[in-house]
Amino acid sequence: MKKFISEDGLVLPLDRSNVDTDYIIPKQFLKSIKRTGFGKNLFDEARYLDKGLPDADCSDRPINPDFVMNQARYAGVSILLARENFGCGSSREHAPWALDDYGFRCVIAPSYADIFFNNCVKNGILLIVLEENIIEKLFADTFQNEGYRLAVDLPSQTITTPDGEKIPFEIEDSRKNILLNGLDDISMTLQNEQDIQGFEASWKQKSPWLFSRIN
Amino acid sequence: MSGKTLYDKLWESHLVKNQDDGTSLIYIDLHFLHEVTSPQAFEGLRIAGRRPWRADANMATPDHNVPTTTDERSRGVEGIIDPVSKIQVKSLDSNCLEFGIDEFEIDDPRHGIVHVIGPEQGRTLPGMTIVCGDSHTSTHGALGALAHGIGTSEVEHVLATQCLVQKKAKNMLVSVNGQLKPGITAKDVVLAIIGHIGTAGGTGYTIEFGGDAIRSLSVEGRMTVCNMAIEAGARAGIVAVDEKTIDYVKGRPFAPKGELWNQAEAAWRALVSDEGAEFDAVVNLEAADIVPQVSWGTSPEMVAPVNGYVPNPADLTNESKRNNYQQALKYMGLEAGTAIKDIMLDRVFIGSCTNSRIEDLRAAAAVVKGRKVADNIKEALVVPGSGLVKAQAELEGLDKIFTEAGLQWREPGCSMCLAMNADQLGEGEHCASTSNRNFEGRQGFGGRTHLVSPAMAAAAAVHGHFVDVREIEL
């Protein structure tokens, strides 16, 4: 899995709460059987003025000039600043795949939906939770200062602003370890093979009907 | 010592081990797969040279992407016109064959929406842990199982290890006290709950739904409630086991039989929260206060009583919420203060894993019987949740009632709930929908969704706008 250690990048302010995964990547692009290529359809319905079709060439589609990500000053962003309950709704992992494919390495928001949160860790995307008032200030600073960047450092769990202010953030040790080392969690789980087999044997004794196929 | 909640019991019974980093390994009894979120997981297994840990703990069916017209469906997988969808459905077939996983293929009479057919077949059993790469897996919690949605990486993880790495959620009890008034359905209950606690109200929790009103719901009604736990932010919703649960499971094709049934039944009866169990959060609602609900905005928490009005964002003090409401009204093309009953509709959709079971279809049919779809409704779809639901409905003559009233009777699948197939809203169209999400673009680019119960959707089809179903003579 992809590692996350640090990211120094331009910030995109997405000033909208309860952003759902349908908004991040609409359903028609979920017909793909691959994990890549979703970046051009990230936020498709907000980003373009026409209806997006799978496999369509997006380079000549009409752009929505009002959508923040289409403004020239936000070209090359890699850090997404968002509002509460980001990533709610559908469990589609295509949402983090699309964010990653576009170039986002990190999201900063007051809160996230649970399934989306897990899906991001599996794809090496760092999700940072900060208090509302700090988020508010980051939005204001990003809007006011063209070229606003943040430097995110996972080992020290700090975000450094352009004027040198350091904002600490919390992260569970398990997630930090996975991100820093890019660990493959299937291999990690399979290190517990004997425990799983042991559990399975006793569970089968207690609940034999779960292990006896009728049809 | 205080007692345990049902969630505590389900968690503890499936705990393989607590790991040093604070996470836990949880054993998964049953894994459902469908065509949209599984191909990359199977590819991952292939690349790593892995096989399923326990192939018999998996069951697959294509549902999200399948067409619902009889013309396409009569030719099985080859009948799918959209070439990209066809590849995805065929990939599921070949992956299941390669990895030894049971699949109800598109032309199997038992095919249907995965969350409908699991319980219907008795694959879903009380006390199980159940996952699927779909957020509405919470549906299965209605049978006293711990069930939730996962992403594709976790689909691969479960296939390879039969386990998930998890942190335990907190316990929330949502108690709906007293008795529901006539004409109020499970859908109205869950919409009212989401309207009350908000779309993130259950984030980080497993919600147990309890109280007399929940107990009085049928098991199918409880599925509707648990189905939408995720719309309140909770990955899993559960209802304690009672006689109705046991009766529902008994005799289903995959349910245990004979002595195994007796053992299972005895174990399942303990699947209730103990007296005095402590919850981290408790929410109480009075059943008598719940009236038919209609969503007016772009989040399932944006609901109003059918006799109510579209709210005015200016009345809100919270700025973020005010912005949210303004964005929603703009997208929905609605003015603050509009009566819900004055919202004119273009389409009606009766279906989805929330509301496509036989009781839902009976409720809708009772409303449209002997009536006609209003002239302003361009299309009204009825999409049964499974082949068996469809067959049962046809046995009861419900299909005739629908088609005589001018609704279309389709083949099973997810259909317009997420509009991956051809069943979609046009830009700007308003739809009365029995599905679960009213997000922007959910049912089609620029489409405007209003979430309602099957009876309310049927009444809206007949009148062309929302009406209080309690005022309709049945």
List the helices and strands and how they pair.
The complex is a heterodimer of chains A (215) and B (474).
Chain A: E1 6-13, H1 21-24, H2 44-47, E2 77-81, H3 94-102, E3 106-109, H4 114-121, E4 126-129, H5 132-144, E5 149-153, E6 158-160, E7 166-168, H6 173-181, H7 185-190, H8 193-206
Parallel strand pairs in A: 1-2, 2-3, 3-4
Antiparallel strand pairs in A: 1-5, 5-6, 6-7
Chain B: H1 6-13, E1 15-18, E2 24-27, E3 30-33, H2 39-48, E4 58-60, H3 70-73, H4 83-99, E5 102-103, H5 114-121, E6 129-132, E7 146-149, H6 152-161, E8 163-166, E9 170-177, H7 186-197, E10 205-210, H8 212-215, H9 219-227, E11 236-238, H10 243-249, H11 258-268, E12 281-286, E13 293-295, E14 303-305, H12 319-332, E15 347-350, H13 358-368, E16 379-382, H14 387-395, H15 398-405, E17 408-409, E18 430-433, E19 448-451, H16 454-463
Parallel strand pairs in B: 3-4, 3-6, 4-5, 6-7, 9-10, 9-12, 10-11, 15-16, 15-18, 16-17, 18-19
Antiparallel strand pairs in B: 1-2, 2-8, 13-14
Helix pairs in contact in B: 2-6, 7-9, 13-15, 13-16
Number of helices of chain A: 8
Helix content of chain A: 25-40%
Q: What amount of the residues of chain B lies in strands?
A: 15-25%
Kindly report the greatest chain-chain contact and the residue count on each side. A-B, 63 and 86 residues
Highlighted features:
heterodimer, A: 215 residues, alpha/beta, Aconitase, domain 4, 2 domains, 8 helices, 15% strand, B: alpha/beta, five-stranded parallel β-sheet
Describe this structure as you would to a colleague.
Chain A is an alpha/beta fold and 215 residues long. Chain A has two domains: 6-183, Aconitase, domain 4 (Alpha-Beta Barrel); 186-215, no CATH class. Chain A is 31% helix and 15% strand. Chain A has helices spanning 21-24, 44-47, 94-102, 114-121, 132-144, 173-181, 185-190, 193-206, and strands spanning 6-13, 77-81, 106-109, 126-129, 149-153, 158-160, 166-168. Chain A is globular. In chain B, a hairpin with a 7-residue loop joins strand 13 and strand 14 (303-305). Chain B has 474 residues and is α/β, with parallel strands linked by helices. In chain B, helix 13 (358-368) crosses helix 15 (398-405). In chain B, 61% of the residues are buried. In chain B, strands 5-4-3-6-7 form a five-stranded parallel β-sheet. A five-stranded parallel β-sheet of chain B has the order 17-16-15-18-19. Chains A and B meet through helix 4, helix 6, helix 7 and helix 8 of A and helix 2, helix 4, helix 6, helix 11 and helix 12 of B.
